[in-house]
UniProtKB/TrEMBL annotation:
Key words of the record: Cytoplasm, RNA-binding
Pfam families per UniProt: SmpB
Gene: smpB
Record-linked SUPFAM superfamilies: Small protein B (SmpB)
InterPro entries in the cross-refs: SmpB, SsrA-bd_prot, SsrA-bd_prot_CS
Claim: ATP-binding is one of the keywords in the record: no
Protein's UniProt name: SsrA-binding protein
Annotated function: Required for rescue of stalled ribosomes mediated by trans-translation. Binds to transfer-messenger RNA (tmRNA), required for stable association of tmRNA with ribosomes. tmRNA and SmpB together mimic tRNA shape, replacing the anticodon stem-loop with SmpB. tmRNA is encoded by the ssrA gene; the 2 termini fold to resemble tRNA(Ala) and it encodes a 'tag peptide', a short internal open reading frame. During trans-translation Ala-aminoacylated tmRNA acts like a tRNA, entering the A-site of stalled ribosomes, displacing the stalled mRNA.
Keyword Nucleus: no
Highest taxon of the lineage: Bacteria
Similarity comment: Belongs to the SmpB family.
Compartments, as annotated in UniProt: Cytoplasm
Amino acid sequence: MPRGHGKSIAQNRKAGHDYFIEETFEAGIVLQGTEIKAIRAGRVNLKESFARISNAEVFIHNMHISHYEQGNIYNHDPTRSRKLLLHRKQINQLIGATQQKGYALVPLKMYIKNGVAKLLIGLGRGKKKYDKREDLKRKQVNREIDRAIKESFK
């Protein structure tokens, strides 16, 4: 199955608006207790989350996985930092890339692939305000063109 495909659980739509995504990586996640059950129930939020490299390991911060409803006192902390599982070669590549100014690791999508929770992270370069405006104009022009084409066929 290609990278980024599987049963989609959560998506970070704001990432495409705020960053130019140059490269993507598929990472596994180290989970505890009832976290996988909450993920399968779709109780994940990637909005304010970000990835950071420390001690040659990649961690995701502020990813919110809600408590599992049927869980008991052993439920997990919803916003704890979670380790991402990547190959050493990929981590070294990310270390070199994120040390450049303006680059960040952004979580894009969480999905279940072959029964395992995966996170698609992207190496993104921050957009400036004028880049965002330009993208909005381009989308609006494309919508108008599509409408005109659709009306011409009626």
